[in-house]
Amino acid sequence: MDRALRGSERRYEQAGRKEIWHSFSPPGHPTGLIQGFGVLVAFDEMRLPPGDSLLLYFNDELETAIYVYQGAISQSEVGGISEVLQTGEFQCMSSGRGGPRIETSVSRSRPVQLFRIALRPDEIGLTRATAHKRFTAAQRRNTLCVVASSDGREGSLRLHQDAIVYSAVLEPGQHVAHALEPQRTAWLHIVRGSAVFEDLVLSEGDGIGVALASAIALTAQEDTEILLVDLGPPPLVRNVSAEPSGPTVRFTSPDGCL
Questions:
Q1: What is the torsional sign of CA 250, 122, 83, 144?
Q2: Are 72 and 126 in contact (CB under 8 A)?
Q3: pTM
Q4: ∠ at Cα 134 (192, 225), nearest 5°?
Q5: Above 50 in pLDDT, residue 239?
Q6: How confident is residue 160, by pLDDT bands cut at 50, 70 and 90?
Q7: Domains of the chain with bracketed CATH
Q8: What is the mean pLDDT of residues 162-177?
């Protein structure tokens, strides 16, 4: 089991009221954070006030899963994708090597809060594409609901990677367990609330990587929401010149200009 990453240990960026917390460090960044966990290269939390924007540059081909925890965000590309994601919606995107993307908070009164998970894809040369779907709180109540997977199981979104993303909304005292097949690992993140994992109490913003274990189990201490990423073994060979470091994020003005 890798060490637990407390929420306060994440790398924090702020510009005005815009905030991002990074669970992992990109290669070469001078922090004490680990540089990914297997094929998981980024796990970010973002809060963006109404009307403000982010400009994202994708440094390499990535598979990205986004969860909109609250609020609404629009995404736009020059001559390309344009859509709006609402509270409770999940999105999977193959980034390819296209141009930058602007994300703008279209919430009226409170910041949009979302979580972004970036994975190395299992192949290169993918065309940039997105798909999104809403998974209700009832679907995720007291169970590990599959929201993204490589085979689209249980109506989940499709990923180009041997990974499964679960979401759960747990009531106090609720216990959940997930079996890990041999050679597989997992990353657990507490979106809100707190839960007991083995002998650790994990709170909002905390994450933990699990390896060399047959299962991952936790018990909610209060109303709690989690994201769990079940990961296959890292690829042995990739046709890339350098390891991907996840999307580069720049804060922009409300009109999307630098």
A1: negative
A2: no
A3: 0.87
A4: 15
A5: no
A6: confident
A7: 4-252 (2.60.120.10)
A8: 97
SS (H, E, C) the chain: CCCEECHHHCEEEEECCEEEEECCCCCCCCCCCCCCECCEEEEEEEEECCCCEEEEEECCCCEEEEEEEECEEEEECCCCCEEEEECCEEEEEECCCCCCEEEEECCCCCCEEEEEEEECCCCCCCCCEEEEEECCHHHHECCCEEEEECCCHHHCEECCCCEEEEEEEECCCCEEEEECCCCCEEEEEEEECEEEECCEEEECCCEEEECCCCEEEEEECCCEEEEEEEECCCCCCCCCCCCCCCEEEEEECCCCCC
Per residue in 58-117, pLDDT (tens digit) is 666 788 999 999 999 999 876 666 789 999 999 998 876 666 788 999 988 889 999 999
Q: In this structure, are residues 151 and 157 in contact, taking their beta carbons and an 8 Å threshold?
A: no
Handedness of CA 185, 190, 114, 170 (dihedral sign): positive
What integer best gives the mean pLDDT of the chain?
A: 84
Q: Cα-atom radius of gyration of the chain, to the nearest Å?
A: 17
